[in-house]
Amino acid sequence: MPDGVLLVDKPAGVTSHDVVAKIRRGLPKGTKVGHAGTLDPFATGLLLILVGRATRVQRFLMGLPKRYETVARLGYTSTTGDPEGEIEPGDMPGEFELPTGIITQRPPAYSAIKIGGKRAYALARAGETVEIPERQVFLARFDCEWREEDRAAFVIECSSGTYVRSLIMELRDAYCVELRRTRIGDFEVADASEERMLSLDEALHFLPLVQLEGGDAEKASHGVAVPGSAHGTVRLHDEAGLIALAEPRDGDLLKPVVGFRA
Questions:
Q1: Domain that holds residue 218
Q2: Are β-strands 66-74 and 151-158 bridged in parallel, bridged antiparallel, or unpaired?
Q3: 250 given a catalytic annotation
Q4: Nearest to residue 157, comparing CAs of 176, 136, 177, 181?
Q5: What phi and psi, each to the nearest 5 degrees, are found at residue 119?
Q6: Which of 33, 36, 60, 80 supports an S-S bond with 24, CB 3.0-4.6 Å?
Q7: Residues 79 and 159 grouped into a single domain
């Protein structure tokens, strides 16, 4: 069974699940396939498709920062914050005040967040009132690239969990007409190819590497903590390659939390 990560440039009009299903059909039966961060159907851009044992590291890839390019329509509102909602005329925004740093944001009602076990967008479409708790996110960059009549383009670099639709809706009044994810961590949409699968090591290159030998390597392959110190998650290696991902524990130990030898 193959293991690794595919960089896919998702087209508009399909869901992230559709992309996963397409990739799965081209792989041996029984291969696990997932993704690391949903894109809305109208959005395009970089989607990380996880194949085989790469599905075990989803949370580490989902936590990477993102870069988006978006075009907003000004002077109108959308119930969903995108072209798929109910569009109403509103007020034309004045000079933009674009925040950076840590901000508090409320995700849109039409989002994939689960509330009481159900997706928020399903509740909203059923006419139910959806109250999603606010969250803190980090904006490293929020720049207006151009503004012409009722359109404006923005570049946003942000932490995982940031909703670009909400950022644009908060400009009063505006909504996204185009949204493209161009980067996830160090992965660029320009490098997307369904023909080349990144190895687990390549996909996890942003995690520090700890080399093990002999008995320690054997212990780690069975999930047993080994001597070592770190400030976060690391890759454990031996001469044969990747053994596991490990996290620091008291007593200068590294405890495997995701194994790749079983």
A1: 209-259
A2: antiparallel
A3: no
A4: 181
A5: -65, 140
A6: 33
A7: yes
Task: Determine phi and psi for 147, rounding to 5 degrees.
Answer: -145, 125
Q: Rounded to an integer, what distance in angstroms lies between the CA atom of residue 244 and that of residue 110?
A: 37
Give how many domains the chain has, as a whole number: 3
Sign of CA dihedral 121, 123, 129, 134: negative
Side chain identity, residue 61: L
The total of other beta-carbon atoms located within 10 Å of residue 235's CB is 22
Confirm if 169 and 70 have CB atoms less than 8 A apart: no
Same domain, yes or no, for 32 and 129?
no
Phi-psi region of 234 (alpha: psi -120 to 50; beta: other; left: phi over 0): beta
Please tell me the distance from the alpha carbon of residue 90 to that of residue 176, in angstroms, as a whole number: 14
Query: CB–CB of 203/239 below 8 Å?
Result: no
Q: Which member of 3, 40, 82, 216 is catalytic?
A: 40
- Whichever domain contains 40, its CATH number is 3.30.2350.10
Distance from C-alpha of 56 to C-alpha of 25, rounded to nearest angstrom: 20
